[in-house]
Amino acid sequence: MKDVDYMAVAETAMAQIQQGAFLTVKAGDRLNTMTIGWATIGYCWKKPIFMVAVRDSRHTFTIIEDAADFTVSVPSGDMKKEVLFCGTKSGRDMDKFAQCDLKTIPGRKVASPIIDLPGIHFECRIVYKSAMDPARLTPDYEPIYPAKDYHTLYFGEILDCYEI
Amino acid sequence: MKDVDYMAVAETAMAQIQQGAFLTVKAGDRLNTMTIGWATIGYCWKKPIFMVAVRDSRHTFTIIEDAADFTVSVPSGDMKKEVLFCGTKSGRDMDKFAQCDLKTIPGRKVASPIIDLPGIHFECRIVYKSAMDPARLTPDYEPIYPAKDYHTLYFGEILDCYEI
To answer: A42 at the B interface (CB within 8 A)?
Structure first.
């Protein structure tokens, strides 16, 4: 593992996240991973901040709502198959780790593990969250929510950022 | 003006924003600029997104609440004096542009102008906003808000990004 500066890798990470990255969350003995394609990275509340969005219809939502932290594992290699699987199948119905042969590695700073893959890994503790209020969303973004399953925005303080 | 990719300049921009950048907002004939030190940049709702935070005690808050857009002007040169002034004085009491000899340039895509300075400029239309709910904030961040003047988070779709 090689420590990296979170903003130095932001461009590379954001380009890959748009192709699919893994949001992994553990709360108690409940663990799941899901594909994300969106994120924002920056500095807020005097801390490095990573924002992810989870729809309230997601199995991951039921876990992250009880979790203190999350990790984001951004693959540098081709993981199209796993990204597609974890973005379309629900952890309610199966063990995605077993189905995709995804191994985890314990987080260095948080309870949620990372996915054992070559790439950039962010370990974040949840410092703020906000369920989206559709009344505040521009109407032209509404087609993103045909089922009205709006996102909750989770702001994680980046406690660790490294490559493996 | 030279068009640049918003993520390609994100590392440089975030480093400078932490030293102070200008958030400029126009609503009708009301115009103000203020210093920001925080922001997040990324991709959400299938769009490039720039998030800024404005405390509800700010004069800028009264303008941005009625605005459709904002700009962020990130100086590449030394503007410590202007950054300090615009971060500590209120546009309620004076014309900051005149006081700091800051000139504006009309936005290319938005009603809010940019500050005429060498650096990176973001033009953003407000697509979502969320007043912070203190109940959702980690208690150890509470000292940021001794006056309980919490931020509203403004999410801007980046319509233009360029250097001058």
So the answer is: yes
Minimum distance, in Å, between the CA of residue A10 and any CA atom of chain B? 7
List of residues 6+ apart from A43 with CB closer than 8 A: A49, B14, B17, B18, B37, B38, B39, B40
Inspect the interface and report whether the beta carbons of B43 and A40 lie closer than 8 Å.
Answer: yes
By C-alpha distance, the chain A residue nearest B54 is: A44
The answer to pTM > 0.80 is yes
Q: What is the DSSP string of A72-139?
A: EEEESS--HHHHHHHHHS-TTTS-HHHHHT--EE--SSSSSPEE-SSEEEEEEEEEEEEE--GGGB-G
Which of these, A4, A131, A58, A7, lies nearest to B42 by C-alpha position? A7
Q: CA-nearest residue of chain B to A154?
A: B136
Task: For chain A, say whether B109 makes contact (Cβ under 8 Å).
Answer: no
Least CA distance to B47: which residue of chain A? A38
B130, A136: Cβ pair inside 8 Å?
Answer: yes
CB contact under 8 A, B45 and A51: no
- How much is the ipTM here? 0.96
Bridge partners for A28 per DSSP:
none
In angstroms, the CA B41 to CA B10 distance is 7
Per-residue pLDDT reduced to its tens digit, B24-61 = 999 999 999 999 999 999 999 999 999 999 999 999 99
Nearest CB among A45, A49, A138 relative to B128 is that of A138
What's the start-to-end Cα distance of chain B, in Å? 5
Q: Quote the tokens at residue B41.
A: 């940049």
pLDDT in tens, B82-95: 999 999 999 999 99
Q: All domains of chain B, ordered by start, with CATH?
A: 2-163 (2.30.110.10)
